[in-house]
Design goal:
The protein has about 190 residues and is of the alpha+beta class. It has one domain. The protein contains 7 helices and 6 strands; from the N terminus they run βββααααβββααα. Strand 4 and strand 5 form a beta hairpin. The two termini are about 20 Å apart. Bound molecules: zinc ion. The site of zinc ion (ZN) has 8 residues, from strand 3 and helix 1.
């Protein structure tokens, strides 16, 4: 089946750019060529009362690096996570609609948590995920948005080993302000 390719919503660009991500965070491979798919993950802190959103971290990772990272997750964690998504029918239904090109407008999809349906404007934190090929978005199981509540549920399904791996990854690439560490410690980085 041909994947459904759509224009990249600018919200998936780096926060200080008007163009899509250009290279893989881990191996530096050129993502603009479209020869290797990539994923973007963004963590947003939303100051609800001020209507101000900060990007806590963001990156693009090529499919090869993502696969390596996934292999470093314990099998138990992978299985638990897969089950979690499967159990949420809204999520699975949306995925299918998107894959056949019948998903709702992308802005609407990205306006709420894909698991709980809570509006992003009402959530203190959320994460966004997307799958891309060169200058296009690929509709697969992504794009989706995971709010703080669902993130907590998912991180509870992770083994300690997996959480350690993820924290190691975060420390290596985003060992930044302590605020970030407090906020995202133990939160999943998943693809
Ligand atoms: Zn890479």
């Amino acid at each position: 089946m041909q994947p459904n390719l759509i224009d990249i919503p600018p919200v998936y660009y780096p926060f200080d750019s008007n163009e899509p991500f250009k290279e893989c965070l881990v191996c530096g491979t050129d993502l603009t060529l479209g020869t290797r798919d990539y994923f973007v993950e963004k963590a947003i802190k939303n100051h609800v009362e001020f209507k101000v959103k900060d990007v806590v971290f963001e990156y693009a990772m090529c499919s090869e690096c993502a696969e390596k990272m996934q292999k470093s997750m314990s099998e138990e964690s992978q299985q638990n996570m897969q089950n979690y998504f499967l159990q949420h029918e809204n999520f699975m239904q949306k995925v299918q609609e998107f894959q056949i090109g019948e998903g709702g407008p992308i802005d609407e999809v990205l306006s709420k948590c894909s698991i709980t349906g809570e509006a992003i404007d009402d959530m203190g934190e959320y994460m966004m995920f997307g799958h891309f090929r060169g200058g296009k978005m690929v509709a697969t199981t992504m794009p989706y948005v995971i709010g703080g509540k669902a993130m907590d549920e998912i991180s509870e399904l992770m083994s300690n080993k997996t959480l350690d791996e993820m924290n190691g990854f975060m420390g290596q690439y985003f060992g930044g302000p302590p605020e970030l560490e407090n906020l995202w410690k133990g939160k999943p980085v998943f693809l």
